[in-house]
Amino acid sequence: MAAIALPMHFLAPTRDNPGMSDPLPRPLLKALSDIFGDALLTDAVAIHGYGTDNSRRHATPQAVVLPQQASQVQALVRLCREHRVAVTARGRGTSTTGAPVPVAGGVVVSFEHMDAIVRIAPDDRLAVVEPGVLNGALQQALVPHGMFWPPDPTSAPYSTVGGNLACNAGGPGSVKYGSAREHVLALVAVTGTGDRIRCGAPTTKDSSGYDLVRLLVGSEGTLALIVEATLKVQARPQGRRALRALYRDVGAAAAAVARVMAQPVLPCALEFMDGEAVRLARERGGAELAEAGALLMIEVDGSGPALEAALQAVRSAADGPGVVALEEAVDEREREALWAARRALSPALRSLRAGKINEDVVVPVSRLPELVHRLGALAAEYRVPIVNFGHAGNGNLHVNILFDPDDAGERERAARCLPRVFDTVLSLQGTLSGEHGIGAAKRPFMAQAFDPPTLAAMRSIKQAFDPDGILNPGKVLPDAWTDADRG
Fold first, then answer.
1. Of 341, 358, 362, 355, which is closest to residue 424 (Cα–Cα)?
2. Which 3-state string (H, E, C) describes the chain?
3. Half-sphere exposure of 431 (CA within 13 A, CB side)
4. How far apart are CA 122 and CA 451, in angstroms?
5. What integer pLDDT is reported at residue 349 of this predicted model?
6. Is residue 56 very low, low, confident or very high in pLDDT (cuts 50, 70, 90)?
7. What are the pLDDT digits (tens) for 161-195?
8. Is 44 helix (H, G, I), strand (E, B) or coil?
9. For the segment 126-151, what is each residue's pLDDT rounded down to a tens digit?
10. DSSP annotation of 49
C-alpha cells in the first residue's frame, strides 16, 4: 500500500497532465478575455482562494472564469481543449476530498454567477436550477410551495446544488430519501469536447436509452460540466419527532439499528455516535449526556396521528438489550435540544486535536459493530484518537483520525493509519465513500477498491466524454502508469 499525504499537503500534478507553472498561451488568454471580460481573473491575489477546498489542499490555477450562461462554458471548454489546458469546475469549495482543487493548474470554472432558479413546478414536483444555486437558497424558495429537495449535507446552507450533484451528496435524510442521485430527473451538461448534451427527462419515469443522469451525478466534474439540473422535489412533511437512545456498547446500538430498519416505519434520520464521540460531546462539547458506549439519534417525519404512531414504532424498536436511556422530544424546542449532542461534536473534536483526517466510509449495516471494533484497535496500534459517527441507517460512518499538526510523529502515524482504515472497510465489503466522493484524497485507493477490468471500463467512459483528459485531471481515477508503479 502506497503512503498517502496528509490533507494539508500540496498535491503535485500527475505525469500526463498540464503543468501548473506554465503560463496560459497568449491566444487562449486573449480569447478568454473576449468571452468573459471582467469575469476572467488572472491576478494572483484574486485567484488564490479558488485553489483550495475544505480538505485544506491547495493548488493555484492559472486563471479563473465566472460564466453567466452555458454558451460561455461551451466556448471555454472548446478553447481549453484546443490548447490542452485543464478545466476544473467549482461550486463553493466545501468538498473535503480536494475534488475542486486544480492540481494540474489550468482554468477554474466557478459557477457562482450561474445561480438562477429557472422555475419551480409543484404540480410536476420539480425545480429547474443552474449549478451555482445554494442548496439552502433552493430550500427557501421551495417553502412557499410546500416542497423541499431531500439532499441535506451539513454544508447545505452554503454548498451549491452543482457541488452536491458532483459528489452525490447525502446527509442524515438519505436513510429515507436517498442521496442526490435519486433526486435528479434531467441534466444539461458540457462534455470535454465542448458539446452540450441533454440527458434524462422532466418526468418521474423514463426508460429511454442509457441513464446518463445517474452516470454524471457523482462524477466530480471529470466527465462533463453540469450547467442546468432538473431536480425531483418532495412535499414537505408537516412535522418531525425525535428520539435519542443511549446504549451500553456499539453492539447493542447496532442491534437496535437492525430492529429500527426492519420495522415498517422508515426513519428520516438515524445517526450514530460511538463511545468516544459521546464522551467528547459530553466532556468537551457541553452536551447533557449520561455515560454510554454508543448513541443513536432517530427522527421520523409525517403528520397528525401517523407521526405519533411512527415515533412509537421506532421507540419500541430502539428499546431492547443494552439500552441505557431513551429520551423523546415532545416539541421542536426539545427536538433541537436532543440534537445538541450531535452538533457539539465538531467543536469538541477540534478541542482534542487541531488536525483531522475525515473519511466517510460505508459498510453493510450488519458490519458496523465489527468496523467500529477494528477502528478502535487501529487507534491503539497507531496511538492516535479515532472518533466515529455518521448515518447508521446507511452504514455510512464518518471516521475521524485526529492528530497534532505540530507533532511530526503523530502526524506520520495518522497518515500510516489511513490506508489501514480503507483496508478494513474493503475487507468488510464496504466502499470508500458514501457522500464525500473520491476527489484527490481517495484516488490512490481506487485500484484497491476496483479490479483492473472495472477500472478499464471507467477509463473508457472517461475517454468517451473527455477524450483529451482536460476535465478535472488528477481526480477519481488513478492513472494507468500509477497502477503499474504500485504493482
1. 362
2. CCCCCCCCCCCCCCCCCCCCCCCCCHHHHHHHHHHHHHHEECCHHHHHHHHECCCCCECCCCEEECCCCHHHHHHHHHHHHHHCCCEEEECCCCCCCCCCCCCCCCEEEECCCCCCEEEEECCCCEEEECCCCEHHHHHHHHHHHCEECCCCCCCCCCCEHHHHHHHCCCCCCHHHHCCHHHHEEEEEEEECCCCEEEEECCCCCCCCCCCHHHHHCCCCCCCEEEEEEEEECEECCCEEEEEEEEECCHHHHHHHHHHHHHCCCCCCEEEEEEHHHHHHHHHCCCCCCCCCCEEEEEEEEECHHHHHHHHHHHHHHHCCCCEEEEEECCCHHHHHHHHHHHHCHHHHHHHHCCEEEEEEEECCHHHHHHHHHHHHHHHHHHCCCEEEEEEHHHCEEEEEEEECCCCHHHHHHHHHHHHHHHHHHHHCCCECCCCCCCCCCCHHHHHHHCCHHHHHHHHHHHHHHCCCCCECCCCCCCCHHHHHHHC
3. 12
4. 44
5. 85
6. confident
7. 999 999 999 999 999 999 999 999 999 999 999 99
8. helix
9. 999 999 999 999 999 999 999 999 99
10. G
Strand order in the sheet with 355-362: 323-328, 239-247, 294-302, 269-274, 386-391, 396-403, 355-362
d(CA 182, CA 204) in angstroms, rounded, equals 11
Q: Is the Cβ–Cβ distance between 245 and 326 less than 8 Å?
A: yes
| Lateral strand order in the sheet of 224-232 | 117-121, 126-129, 224-232, 184-191, 196-200
Where helices occur in 328-407 by DSSP H, the ranges are 332-343, 345-352, 368-382
Q: What three-state secondary structure class fits 479? A: coil
Return the residue matching grid coordinates 427536538: 335
Model pLDDT for residues 414-453, shown as the tens digit of each residue = 999 999 999 999 999 999 999 999 999 999 999 999 999 9
What is the rounded CA–CA span in Å between residue 260 and residue 297?
A: 12
Single-letter code of the amino acid located at 373: H
Distance of CA 135 to the CA centre of its chain: 13
The label of the residue with cell 484497491 reads: 448
d(CA 65, CA 99): 18
At 155, list the grid cell. 454544508
pLDDT at 243: 94
For residues 356 and 385, give the distance between their C-alpha atoms in angstroms, rounded to a whole number.
Answer: 10
* pLDDT given at position 485: 39
- What per-residue confidence (pLDDT) applies to 9? 31
